[in-house]
Amino acid sequence: MPATPISEPDAMTTGWPRRLAPPAIATFRDAEGAPAFGAQVPIKPLDAPRLLHLNTELAADLGIEDGPETRDALAATAGGGDAAACTDGFASVYAGHQFGIFVPQLGDGRATIIGTLRDHRGQDQELQLKGAGPTPYSRFADGRAVLRSTVREYLASEALHALGIPTTRALAIVGSDTPVQRETVERAAVLYRVAPSHLRFGHFEYLAATGRTEDLRALATHALARFRPDLEPTPEGFRAWLSDIVARTARLVAQWQGVGFCHGVMNTDNFSILGLTIDYGPYGFMERFHRAHICNHSDHEGRYAYARQPAIAQWNCARMISACLSLVADDGADNDERIALAQPVLDAFASAYSASALAIWRDKLGLREARDGDDALVNDLLERMEASDADFARTFRALADLRIDGGDPLADHLGEDEAATGWLSRYRERLRAEHSDDDARRDRMRRTNPRFVLRNWLAQHAISAAESGDPAPLDRLLDCLRRPFDEQPECADLDAPPPDWAAGLSVSCSS
Ligand code: AMP
Ligand code: MG
Fold first, then answer.
1. Which ligand is nearest to the Cα of residue 108, counting in written order?
2. Is 72 exposed, middle or buried (0-12, 13-18, 19+ CB in 10 A)?
3. What is the rounded CA–CA span in Å between residue 131 and residue 41?
4. Is the CB of 186 under 6 A from ligand 1?
5. Which of 42, 75, 298, 305 could bond to 508 as cystine, CB 3.0-4.6 Å?
6. Rounded to an integer, what distance in angstroms lies between the CA atom of residue 232 and that of residue 246?
7. CA 359 – CA 349 distance, rounded (Å)
8. Ligand 1 lined by 263 (C-beta under 6 Å)
9. Residue environment code for 3-22, b if the CB has 16+ CB neighbours within 10 A, otherwise e
């Protein structure tokens, strides 16, 4: 049983600093009374910490009132100078399959949870500082994050959130003068990351690999009680919980595919048990549609290429379920019996993924009815897009403007050859078959196909400006990406073709 500490009653505090309730994972103790799943670590001081960006909407949702004192105090906390409240955080230990290879111990090497806050819906949210200094799990690294990677995570998590895709959130960026050595010397920054839970598949893999079956059960029981309180911690309950994780993961990846989001490092330590997108590194929104697109320059084999994301997510679910085999059957069961009970849980991934994906593609095409052949219609469109090097987001947006009996707004995207015109007539036929109304369909399609996505060059432009002390392009880009489906004519330049300087841009694991 975890020790449950008594804490002060919730006060109606706004602003910052603030005394936070400890995260649940920090309250579990081992036989010696030490934290069972990680370690408390001091926040390491930064030189001249300053708040570079505050997500005022999320802050309000968490009951943090914006104001100059709040902003200074948030910077002071992340910079290790907050004597009033948070001086340390909790770093958890986990394992993970990195590029397919099991690494028995990883852990939060540069992220610590400083506590939890209750949001306006009454849900507890963990506040994590990413880049706050070394932890026992830093291995040989410095525990820091550079401004560049912090801005990238901030942008992507807010962009995905606005697209309706589950993700960790970003509350604030704190910049500093602290130098950090990467390929060149850069500046350290800290990201305030927010999620109901930061538990990853890797937490369970770690406990399974170290034979800590009772601790694994305790952690799973905690997750169950928090996120599926309708379930009992029995073999049936745990199987239902795992099925939920599989379903959430399948749906998440289907949503990624639908906007061309490539995660870049789909290791099991970067997979959330809540089906949230987590750990933004060398991610990318695919621009020109290519199924083999690899966004991470360091992924030489293309393990995490766009088209492989669903299969990898399923493989990751297999690792999670394997780690939890001890939970899925009664004590007397042997391994074969456990596997027989667990296999259907995993097998449900395929149908969950196909159902989610097909529904998403139908929405993208503005189809209201489900008909045989829709799958082929989608696949043939994607093939045309690949053949003509079409821009993913712009093509679907243009498709919204197609009139059943009108001209062809797609020539720029799909070309004008027979294959393209053939596909367009099939699409028009399909629309006629369900008596589709052009205007209503366009409105629907514009609510599901974004006008604006986070293109790499836009992120790079915002980063370069932020690095030279100008936060305006970052603020403007975020404003635009918060309403990705709106036309926003004043932001047309954020949908322009990449400028010449962006031609050779690439992202790798360095962050
Ligand atoms: P990632 O590839 O970012 O998911 O990181 C893999 C592991 O390396 C995680 O356990 C991270 O916490 C850790 N890590 C990444 N960068 C650093 C760093 N600069 N300092 C310490 N640990 C790090
Ligand atoms: Mg990670």
1. 1
2. middle
3. 12
4. no
5. 298
6. 18
7. 15
8. no
9. eeeeeeeeeeeeebbbebbb
Query: Cα of 36 to ligand 1 centre, how many Å?
Result: 21
Task: Give me the helices (H) in 324-417, please.
Answer: 335-364, 374-387, 392-400, 411-414
Tell me the H-state helices in 80-230.
147-162, 201-209, 213-227
Determine the atom of ligand 1 nearest the C-alpha atom of 281. 3
Q: Among candidates 470, 475, 393, which has minimal Cα distance to 155?
A: 475
Ramachandran area for residue 178 (φ above 0: left; ψ -120 to 50: alpha; else beta) = beta
- CA-145 nearest atom, ligand 1: 19
pLDDT of residue 9: 47
Ligand 1 pocket test: pick from 99, 102, 103, 110 the residue with the most ligand atoms within 8 Å of its Cβ: 110
Mean pLDDT, the chain, as a whole number? 95
Rounded CA separation 39/467 (Å): 33
Q: Read out DSSP for 44-104?
A: PP-SS-EEEEE-HHHHHHTT---SHHHHHHHHHHHTT--TTS-SEEEEEP--EEETTEEES
Give this prediction's pTM.
0.96
Using CA atoms in the order 137, 141, 147, 150, what is the torsion angle rounded to 10 degrees?
-30
Size of the chain in residues? 511
Q: Report yes or no: 308 and 262 within 8 Å, Cβ to Cβ.
A: no
End-to-end, the C-alpha distance of the chain in Å comes to 38
269 is catalytic: yes
Residue 108 alpha carbon to ligand 2 centre in Å: 8
Q: How far is the CA of 508 from the centre of ligand 2 (A)?
A: 14
**167 alpha carbon – ligand 2 mean position (Å):** 14
Q: Is the CB of 106 under 6 A from ligand 1?
A: yes
Q: Which residue has the tokens 């918060």?
A: 482
**Cα(283)–Cα(464) distance, integer angstroms:** 18
> Which atom of ligand 1 approaches the CA of 94 most closely?
10
Q: What residues in the chain have per-residue pLDDT under 50?
A: 9, 11-12
Q: Between vectors from CA 443 to CA 442 and to CA 447, what angle results, nearest 5°?
A: 110
Look-up of token digits 């205007």: 439
200-210 residue pLDDT tens: 999 999 999 99
